[in-house]
């Protein structure tokens, strides 16, 4: 680990556990402990675009205890490259806990002594080949053919992610959510929940997200799809019997890695590289160290990922407007939950103006909404790594009516 | 043209001439008039990395008159996708003048009644197939084989661009520059001039640039190279007898287009597109309007472009540190020119911190340096389209010792 990064981890009060290029909290006394991953299935699922998926399977996990009234439930919705694993460990040997372990646990901001916290995998999750992820998407077997769906899988939206979660909650007899909380793509689900099922949702916390994508965000996300579409192995999505489009997938996930970070942190993490390197000066085929490192990180991210799933995830995000109405204002007019927006000041991907627009629209509509920015060097990733900074605010927001 | 964009063009006082998605000034009374493009050749050119290029040809043009002492010369250095055409028109029929026509001309900030303004094409210019560009690079004929160089062309740096310009000025008997001024990649050349030939350069204006690239910028620029490297037609740079890697080139130039703009302007230009479009909801193969438009714009940009040239341009930028010394401070210690940095506040590509770092380093070294930010909605492109905003400052900077 490079020294300045180690210092940074200590500075922000985290144990210096490094995974890829990430410092995360080590296990603490307030952990939710060992977590059990479960599977939920639903049949004849109707998608927002009017298609039907015969069988949907998704993974989920929970922390804390469901009370007798079943009214202490908080739903956590995950980000683009994430999954249900928001807190705790699956086994004692896990190197790292779930991604928001710093705010989910007994006595923490999302207090598992009070709340029953549920988190589930989305449809078309990026990592269908991860043994700890259960998802349904183009890599899943199409029951009508016995082969993977490929592009026969219908386009799905954030609303479909929400509807699968709704079906899961229905199956558990839960008819009320104390809060829905998510980061990035998770924040889109959280806000859409409040428009889709306004009587169901009491509070929404949108971290590093917004109310709707705009042309710039659609075009920016398209950059992640393009290398996959250009890979000859992609073969119009039909590659499951042959060679997968791993080069395109790697390029896509490399861009996700880079674009989710601000130069402030990126330059610390990759400080060993710079314009003075000798190999790239003498050989146009030679890479800068930072490029090799980023490629290696992207390569590691391809292990469990599927290229078509990335395309479908990109599309789900590109199609997002909370409420799925004629415009954002109309969509948000249905919200009865109170909302808290926590964008990151240095976010270059889902920039703070997206959250501010949603917040201001809700205020204009007479709703109760709060807005505060996370300050940090990571950029977009501040919403994952530095969420702790807003722990007290989150705790207060959850504790008051 | 969409209405809000028209309003914007009027707002900033420009005639609403649209080229691609760009409003530029129409011809005015203070034009430099018709411009004549010339060619300069030099032989046995020694590159910074120790190679030799037997013949270098580059295009150049000039505005104003060289005085008897040859001490009224201003050199303009061009940006990544640009060429020597900074002002005026080649023919009466040209739809648009050169890119900085708003500040170069009789009575303008860079006053051609006073100064002899020279502008030249760089090595490995993006558009070797543009009849109005003369450049030498991998698409040029290697005299020792009679075939295009391809990857046998040596890696070149910003310093090599400077040295070709130096040879051009030497050939004209010019031994002093009143100023070197450039935007983006042009700003890198401008600042490097002052480190390479400190006795030659009196003033530097660095617009939307910086003193050195950092790992984040190296990685960001690499994104433009990757689609070319991944295109099977690229064939390790050897495609001149066959099919060019146009798909990769288009993807690269699409990213250049997108990443040079800030959402503020991008969302106005592509306001017709949005998350509510029907085709992408129903077909994963269908594109959003903004994606089709961006692809079309990128396609148009491939007309005269060469994929290897883009790779070499990316590399030249990735290798940049003014002075090419052990660090930026050492490089800048050689500067005797006074410097003016004009980054754009909303630049997401070469962000203002790069210029600020160079400015502060020069100040620490006891040099005379000024720093002001261009305010606008374009992002990086503010340095091209809204340079007019700093016309008075530029005029003052050029007029004082």
TrEMBL record, chains A, B:
InterPro entries: AB_hydrolase_1, AB_hydrolase_fold, HAT_MetX-like. Pfam families: Abhydrolase_1. The active site is at residues 184, 347, 380. The keyword Cytoplasm applies. It comes from the Bacteria. GO terms for molecular function: homoserine O-acetyltransferase activity. Belongs to the AB hydrolase superfamily. MetX family. Homodimer. This is Probable acyltransferase. The lineage of its organism: Bacteria, Pseudomonadati, Pseudomonadota, Gammaproteobacteria, Pseudomonadales.
């Amino acid at each position: 680990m490079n020294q300045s990064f180690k210092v940074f981890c200590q500075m922000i009060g985290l144990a210096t556990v490094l995974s890829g290029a990430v410092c995360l909290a080590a296990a603490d006394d307030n952990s939710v402990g060992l977590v059990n991953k479960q599977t939920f299935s639903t049949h004849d699922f109707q998608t927002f675009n009017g298609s039907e998926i015969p069988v949907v399977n998704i993974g989920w996990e929970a922390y804390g205890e469901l009370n007798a009234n079943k009214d202490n439930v908080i739903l956590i919705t995950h980000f683009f490259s994430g999954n249900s694993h928001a807190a705790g460990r699956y086994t004692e040997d896990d190197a790292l806990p779930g991604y928001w372990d710093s705010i989910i646990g007994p006595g923490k901001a999302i207090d598992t002594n009070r709340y029953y916290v549920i988190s589930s995998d989305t449809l078309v999750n990026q990592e269908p080949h991860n043994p700890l992820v259960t998802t349904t998407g183009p890599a899943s077997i199409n029951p009508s053919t016995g082969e993977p769906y490929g592009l026969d899988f219908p386009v799905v939206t954030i609303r479909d992610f929400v509807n699968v979660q709704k079906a899961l909650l229905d199956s558990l007899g839960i008819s009320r959510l104390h809060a829905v909380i998510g980061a990035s793509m998770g924040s889109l689900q959280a806000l859409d929940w409040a428009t889709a099922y306004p009587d169901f949702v009491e509070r929404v916390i949108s971290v590093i997200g917004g109310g709707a994508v705009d042309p710039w965000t659609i075009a920016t996300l398209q950059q992640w799809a393009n290398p996959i579409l250009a890979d000859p192995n992609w073969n119009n999505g039909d590659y499951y019997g042959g060679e997968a489009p791993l080069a395109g997938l790697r390029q896509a996930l490399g861009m996700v890695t880079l674009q989710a970070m601000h130069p402030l942190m990126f330059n610390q993490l990759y400080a060993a590289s710079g314009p003075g390197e000798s190999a790239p000066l003498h050989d146009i085929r030679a890479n800068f160290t930072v490029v090799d490192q980023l490629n290696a990180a992207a390569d590691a991210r391809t292990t469990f990922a599927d290229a078509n799933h990335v395309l479908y995830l990109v599309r789900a995000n590109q199609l997002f407007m909370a409420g799925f109405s004629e415009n954002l204002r109309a969509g948000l007019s249905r919200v009865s939950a109170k909302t808290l927006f926590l964008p990151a000041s240095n976010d270059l991907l889902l920039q703070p103006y997206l959250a501010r627009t949603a917040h201001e629209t809700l205020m204009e509509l007479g709703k109760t909404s709060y807005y505060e920015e996370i300050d940090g060097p990571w950029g977009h990733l501040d919403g994952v790594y530095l969420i702790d900074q807003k722990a007290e605010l989150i705790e207060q927001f959850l504790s008051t009516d």
